[in-house]
Specification:
With 177 residues, this protein is an alpha+beta fold. The chain has two domains: 75 residues, Beta-grasp domain (Ubiquitin-like (UB roll), Roll), CATH 3.10.20; 75 residues, DNA polymerase, domain 1 (Orthogonal Bundle). Helices cover 33% and strands 12% of the residues. A five-stranded mixed sheet has the order 2-1-5-3-4, with helices on both faces. The longest helix has 21 residues. The radius of gyration is 19 Å and the shape is globular. One of its GO terms (molecular function) is metal ion binding. Keywords: 2Fe-2S, Iron, Iron-sulfur, Metal-binding, Oxidoreductase. This is 2Fe-2S iron-sulfur cluster binding domain-containing protein.
């Protein structure tokens, strides 16, 4: 079959795809996107996590035929147009959250999804959002630090983008009556 989908915002297709092969295999071997990792092949580790039509999924468990016409976002889609790291990726590097790198793609996508729906997550929220991703290197503290740092920086950037509140001539905030 010919598999047609949108990957990281770009329409793409792959020919001679067996509809039962995994989406992970198609992404890595047919489309040249090696970011999502092939680790357990059972949906237990999170290394192959991608967003499929906006939902986090383990790409190793999705048959290619199920993805026909879908929108897929991989870890490669996090970087900016010139390849610059996203604020979340930069926070992972800065805090030492990246060790061997096998868990990193899934952790990044899970953290991105968390921060999109909860811009100021608490530790319990972060732990819950990342629970489907196993890391054997870091002990998780640096990963938690990275998500906290990214959340803080995103909040600061958004605050800087906000125009200042109007003031009245008396120096106080202008309140509607």
């Amino acid at each position: 079959m010919r598999l047609t989908l949108t990957v990281n915002g770009r329409p793409t297709s792959a020919d001679h795809v067996w509809e039962g092969e995994s989406l992970l295999y198609v992404l890595r071997e047919r489309l040249g996107l090696p970011g999502s990792k092939n680790a357990c092949e059972q949906g237990e580790c999170g290394s192959c996590t991608v967003r499929l039509d906006g939902e986090l999924v383990c790409a190793c468990l999705v048959a290619a035929g199920q993805a026909e016409g879908s929108e897929v976002r991989t870890v490669e889609g996090l970087a900016g147009p010139e390849g610059e790291l996203s604020p979340l990726q930069a926070a992972f590097v800065e805090t030492g959250a990246v060790q061997c790198g096998f868990c990193t793609p899934g952790l990044l996508l899970a953290a991105e999804e968390l921060l999109a729906r909860a811009p100021h997550p608490g530790d319990a929220d972060i732990r819950e959002a990342l629970a489907g991703n196993l890391c054997r290197c870091t002990g998780y503290e640096n990963i938690l630090d990275a998500v906290r740092l990214a959340a803080t920086r995103t909040a600061q950037d958004q605050a800087q983008d906000q125009p200042p509140a109007p003031t009245n001539p008396n120096g106080g905030a202008d309140h509607a009556r």
